[in-house]
Amino acid sequence: MAVLYGAKTPPGLTATLLAKEELYLVATRAVPSPGNSVDLMDVSRLNLFLPREGDVVRNQVDEAMAVRRLAANVIGEIESPSTLSAAIAGGLGATILPESAARAMIGPAKAWMARIISPALAVPMTLCVSSQQPLSAPALAVKELLLSIVAERSQEKRALVLVQ
């Protein structure tokens, strides 16, 4: 069982869409905060640490930039969360992450996050299980727990939208 970002299901797995997570710019005070949201054109002017080409987040960013005749200023490719957090905390640049990953990083990196708009970017988050073997009873329990956590988060998010 795996929770993955992206719409492509690896061979031998069955995927269930859990959510679509919007992409956020994450940086420290070394980069002036734009507030709650930031335009993709402004993102293109920043020094960025992104995952390698082929990664679902990188693909979204590259495609959105290309459509607008922009180019990401990628100064490094980092996939290790701890290394990425250290680079951001050190003020070396900014990064683009799905919302849950961005929220997890802003505390340790003493960073801020801003939703990318114009256009809004999002990546699917899927729960993948083997299509060839049934899940064991403990694995089924974990799957149900994961599904309930995601459902709870979705309800909380809807409530926040209604209140705003």
Automatic annotation (TrEMBL):
Signal peptide: none annotated. One of its GO terms (biological process) is regulation of DNA-templated transcription initiation. GO terms for molecular function: DNA-binding transcription factor activity. The lineage of its organism: Bacteria, Pseudomonadati, Pseudomonadota, Gammaproteobacteria, Enterobacterales. Residues 1-147 form the LysR substrate-binding domain. Keywords: Activator. This is Nitrogen assimilation transcriptional regulator.
